[in-house]
Amino acid sequence: MNIVFASAEVAPYSKAGGLADVAGSLPQAMAPYVNSVQVLTPLYGEIDQNKYDIHPTTIRGKVALGDKVAPYSLYQTTDVDQITQIGFIRCDRFFGRDGIYTESDGEGFADNNLRYFFFQLVVLDLISSGTLPTDILHCNDHHTGLLPLMMKAMHLKVKTIFTIHNFLYHGHFSTQEISLLPKSTGPLLTKTQLDNYSALLEGIDHSDIVTTVSPGYALELLAGVNVDEYSLTRIQAVESNFYGIVNGIDTEYWSPEHDQFTPFHFSKDDLAGKRKNKAALLTKVGLSPDMDAPLLGSISRLVENKGFPLIIELLDEFVELGAKFIFLGSGSPEISDQLQKASKRHPQHIAFDDGFNEPLAHLIEAGSDMFLMPSRFEPCGLNQLYSLRYGTIPIVHSTGGLGDTVDAWTSDSGTGFVFEPYAINELRKSMELALKVYHSESDWMTLMHRAMLMDFSWDQSAKQYLHLYNLLIGGSSENI
Ligand code: ADP
Fold this sequence. Notes:
Blueprint: E1 2-6, H1 18-30, E2 36-42, E3 55-65, E4 68-78, E5 84-90, H2 92-95, H3 112-128, E6 136-140, H4 147-153, E7 159-164, E8 172-173, E9 197-198, H5 199-206, E10 209-212, H6 215-223, H7 229-236, E11 242-244, H8 272-285, E12 295-302, H9 308-320, E13 324-331, H10 333-345, E14 350-354, H11 358-367, E15 370-373, H12 383-389, E16 393-397, H13 400-405, E17 417-419, H14 424-438, H15 441-453, H16 459-472
Parallel strand pairs: 1-2, 1-6, 2-5, 6-7, 7-10, 10-11, 12-13, 12-15, 13-14, 15-16, 16-17
Antiparallel strand pairs: 3-4, 4-5, 8-9
Helix pairs in contact: 4-5, 8-11, 9-10, 9-14
The chain binds adenosine-5'-diphosphate.
């Protein structure tokens, strides 16, 4: 079984969100079960080629984009095992700049459609030319949503699986832009109700199997939660081939015992290092070193659906109750401005780091007492999983993957604080309960132990993907 895994982001090389983490770890988790896994991703200008020993191969080619021809070359690094290859597609015109999707001011690149059309055409070229032997092409999100249709249009004997990491982003393109795609794809495209096209919906329509990143989110999508009526008919049309598989995590990279970015290591049996990380974190972000105050962390793209309207509303009153907050994130200027103002109002209690900062993200996971993740919706969510592993108790809205992975605290069970419905008062009650339990040391210790015992390694989820891969190539049809 030869797998090609196409993704616009792959950690640690390029990362804007959870897609990168999955693309960086799922292919490796699949490696023991298959002949080869070839990951394909763009070679962005900001990728540090020296650091990762990324070098050119002899593979190069050209693809037609309308009446123009664009050249590419394939770069490669062999990642941690012999089976997974990470291939980087180089074309400086499209990818040789800083930023993955956006300018430094957060505006999307004007030529994003063209960039990802090009990326997909190169993947098509590498597969159709036989350069990369491929039984299954695993596509991820709208940047790769047209590949299943291309495989069909070119009559390639390649099975396709399309994973939705976030249904919010469609990759809409116009009728004029169709001329940039191979001619045989045009008749297979379906217009949306907006009179344009959605690369995401095309991926759903044309792949052999569609998955999303948690069972809860799969059910929500099928029920039309946060889905317009038109898209819903297209999702429901593939219901019998639609699966929810919860994401796993890279348990070495996100490990309290070995984390390369944290000054102190710890485990559930020896939590001294966690307390030292808390002290280090408070100092690093300039908060007063009050070790008994509950410290709530947040690492997130700054977008409305991550729950910021609720959080921001509650900050002042929870500072009054003695809580401290550390926010790390970039995105919406409005949310950034509100967090900035809150940290100016309470410089000893609220810290905000506006940016993308991998080492600080690890220290926040390791040093915080709780992790705030009250997303309005969340396909899977990874930070709550990292948090559980670091004994940093998640406070989450019961939605999508958050509902699937965090159980509500009771004195006998549960791993976090879970609220429903999505409303300020419900979050307030959850945070109040979290603070109350925090101040009861033995209850908090029990809760931390329970959280740290949870296993979200890829083992289980990789086996579920393997079942699907097997289904595709006519192997076992065992249900997942
Ligand atoms: P999403 O994919 O919607 O952004 P996830 O929870 O699935 O949300 O994944 C987000 C990933 O991106 C996590 O690994 C998180 O730690 C990381 N991340 C988000 N914002 C930042 C940031 N500002 N700095 C460092 N890491 C970040």
